[in-house]
């Protein structure tokens, strides 16, 4: 651990176990320290599980490390049911991809050790967000048509984050452990529209571009994604409903997307 001395985590385990509030039954190390990828600039992420119901708080500390630096401790303190529900849900940072992230049990009450005895958290992929993707292009077009270029860029970023959840159906399964891995996996999907990586970077705001460039990139992403996943219309219908699934095949979805073109870019 490049920042904290060897006894640092043990001291914080003792401190958190005896803190005021519901009884603590487990303390878990997450994030870059659990992945053995911490740098001198990394936070220490701890999940603290307590007994009882409907308890959720997120205290943070700037603590002395013992090696002449301060470290940011980011703590998620929740009841067991809420913690279990959180780690069983798709990760909101993973571009819709499944997650397998390392964790380490720093301490667990004896009656909870068996339940918490794991070395990783497995979170499922998000459902394919085709409907939100289509609606997203409408938001991009509407903002740019109104001259709201900042709003258009913001909507394009949201749209890009949803693309991989839909394209995942046409691609080999890939599992990620961190935000950086998720970004690279999302950008590198092999079954994707032409110019996909560049369009994603433009929409996410990670590459330069004029408003017309951002709109064109968003349009390429959505229309190209629709074309790529057309063979999966039946599977998509299970999550978006039978009408949108049918529209993917009968041409209505393509017709609708063709309407979403601001006059300033025609």
Write the layout of secondary structure elements.
Blueprint: H1 8-17, E1 24-30, H2 31-34, E2 44-50, E3 56-57, E4 60-64, E5 70-79, H3 80-87, E6 99-102, E7 104-108, H4 110-116, E8 120-123, H5 130-145, H6 149-167, H7 179-187, H8 196-203, H9 211-229, H10 233-240, H11 242-250, H12 252-259
Parallel strand pairs: 2-5
Antiparallel strand pairs: 1-2, 1-7, 3-5, 4-5, 6-8
Verbal overview:
The chain is an alpha+beta fold and 266 residues long. It is built from twelve helices and eight strands. It has helices at residues 8-17, 31-34, 80-87, 110-116, 130-145, 149-167, 179-187, 196-203, 211-229, 233-240, 242-250, 252-259, and strands at 24-30, 44-50, 56-57, 60-64, 70-79, 99-102, 104-108, 120-123. The strands form two sheets. Strands 1, 2, 3, 4, 5 and 7 form a six-stranded mixed sheet that branches. Strands 6-8 form a two-stranded antiparallel ribbon. α5 runs antiparallel to α9 and α8 packs across α9 (211-229). The longest helix is centred in the middle third of the chain and has 19 residues, at 149-167. The radius of gyration is 22 Å and the shape is elongated. The model has no long low-confidence stretch (mean pLDDT 93).
Residue share in β-strands: 15-25%
Q: Tally the helices: what do you get? A: 12
Which shape, going by the Cα principal axes? elongated
State the total count of DSSP E strands.
Answer: 8
Largest sheet: 6 strands, mixed
What portion of residues is helical?
A: 40-55%
Which stretches are poorly predicted, pLDDT < 50 over at least 5 residues? none
